Amino acid sequence: MDYSRLGLKCGIEIHQQLSGKKLFCSCPAKINDSEPDLLVKRKLHAVIGETGTVDTAAAQEEARNRSFIYQAYRDCTCLIELDEEPPKPINSDALHTALLVAKMLHAKPVDEIQVMRKTVIDGSNTTGFQRTALVAMNGYIDISEGRISIPTISIEEEAAKIVDRKGDSDVYNLSRLGIPLIEIGTGPDLKTPEGVKEACEKLGLILRSTERVMRGIGTIRQDVNVSIEGGARIEIKGAQDLRMIPSLVENEALRQKSLLDIRTGLKRFNIEDRIHNVTQVFRDTQAKIIKRSESVFATRLPGFHGFLGKELIPGRRLGTEFSDYAKVAAGVGGIFHSDELPNYGITEKETEEVRRALKCRPDDAFVIVADSKEKSAKALEAVIRRAKMVFDGVPQEVRKANPDGTSSFMRPIPGEARMYPETDVMPIRPRSDDIELPELIEEKARRYSENFKLSKDLAMSIARSGKGRMLELFINEFKAIKPAFIAETIFSIPISLKKEYGVEWDIREDHFETLFSHLNSGALPKESIVQAMADIIKGRFDISSYQADSSELEKDIREIIARNKDSSFAAIMGEVMKKYRGRISGKIVSEAIRKCI
Ligand SMILES: [Zn+2]
């Protein structure tokens, strides 16, 4: 595709979780996925915003009349996440990091930081709003395409994590709620899919240079705004994998172009808001999904014959878009449309009968939904709403990124009415004059490689991992250990532990400190570090168990030699090492064997 001819315009919004404490309470920024200590059930209601109107997205959520179940934890949630206590003043470390990032992006801090409430009633916040504050404005980054403006840098609280969507009562985990997030928004200056990816990468590296960000899947999220000439600004949420970004953008540009082509090709008829009960048509049906449902409803879409089956992008048709709307609005499993029938066990005869019942002309299409009367009606109303939008071309939407680079409808673009001031938090005058810029990741890697004699790859991995500060600390503290060994251990031990025990371990700085102090004194053999680290984390480390009693060792060696009379030195060595499982260094074992032979 020729993106400049299409008039492609993209912007990104990056959300990065910060480590440390939460934004408005003292709970640790830590996601706990274990069994909750407490469950709380709530309902949320839309309220009017500052401008006196109710946000459409919020109103749509409230209409779904759902309950929410919140999982709370003693170690990382408190009454503030449950909205039973007002927020504390904003976390000054997190604010400092946001100002630091602003400075790195050449942005100007605002005179006064005012925390705002942004209405969100999908259940992901117990309050019904998300706290957010603008920190700085008018920054930029330079990429190969040129200068990309960064109009806003904000700090906000992370939402609760969805655990289970049950339709009527969604389950959310509260441990994530309130973790500080830095939000960086660029202007719509990006012109190619690759440019979008490059900007995301560059901003990601800048954020990581602060060494104050959380690490791992889901700790950084990119939302991409995409529009083409004549299309609409579409916000695609939750791209977690940078490699997917170019195809997300390409697919969205193509989707908008296809929707514009359909608008041109479609004759305009009046779409009636009529829903018909066609349950009778399917009284003897063999179609499994329909057989299970109590009723079947249908609506006629005049002039749409042949258009619902049109592919917008490979694998997704106009009918898929209609289906997304029905799913979101009514929680139904999906829709059937006439361009895909007969199929799915629905016969030619049944298809014809529906056409007759709806008085379809040859040019008309229809959509059917098999569910309860109430849900089917909601679903078909959404389909009719979406069908009418076809004549506008591209409806403004928030879409969610799918893992295959496509996206699906999530909700309408929220209006301006959803912000109002947070009156429980005092405004702050930011001070950023004394903020020192951190060393960039590339510079740091170069310094590690030169000063500590690390390979370039290892130096870069450590610099990117945010463990650089710890590395430098330990290299200073433990002079008897080679810097490269410290670096290698910090980097590789989580991987070795996972390989050995099959689970992720939460390794803290003090765990490393204990390990290196025993290595530094020579008390712990290098071969034992994986086993020793496991013991340290479990809190049952005992250095004496790593120091073999020499008479005990000799006794074991003699026994092994006696059992393996004709074996080589190496084979005996192997047997002894197996028995001691890395608890003694190879050097000590080989010396002891030599003594015994
Ligand atoms: Zn808390």
Strand content: 15-25%
Largest sheet: 11 strands, mixed
Oligomer: single chain
What number is the mean pLDDT? 90
**Number of helix segments?**
18
Overall SS class: alpha+beta
In total, how many domains does the architecture comprise? Answer: 4
Relative helix content: 25-40%
Question: What hetero molecules are bound to the protein chains?
Answer: zinc ion
Uncertain segments are none
Overall geometry: globular
Number of DSSP strands?
21
Distance between the amino and carboxyl termini = 76 Å
Rg from Cα: 31 Å
List the helices and strands and how they pair.
Elements: H1 3-6, E1 9-17, E2 38-43, H2 56-63, E3 67-72, H3 92-104, E4 108-109, E5 115-119, E6 129-143, E7 146-157, E8 161-164, E9 169-173, E10 180-185, H4 193-209, E11 220-227, E12 234-239, H5 245-265, E13 276-277, H6 288-292, E14 296-301, E15 311-313, E16 316-317, H7 318-330, E17 336-337, H8 348-357, E18 365-370, H9 373-389, E19 397-401, E20 407-412, E21 419-421, H10 441-451, H11 456-465, H12 468-477, H13 483-501, H14 509-521, H15 529-538, H16 550-563, H17 569-580, H18 586-596
Parallel strand pairs: 3-9, 12-19
Antiparallel strand pairs: 1-10, 1-11, 2-3, 4-6, 5-6, 5-21, 6-7, 7-10, 8-9, 11-12, 13-14, 14-18, 15-16, 17-18, 19-20
Helix pairs in contact: 4-5, 7-9, 10-11, 11-13, 13-15, 14-15, 16-18, 17-18
The chain binds zinc ion (ZN).
Residues 22, 25, 27, 77-78, 80-81, 178 line the site of zinc ion.
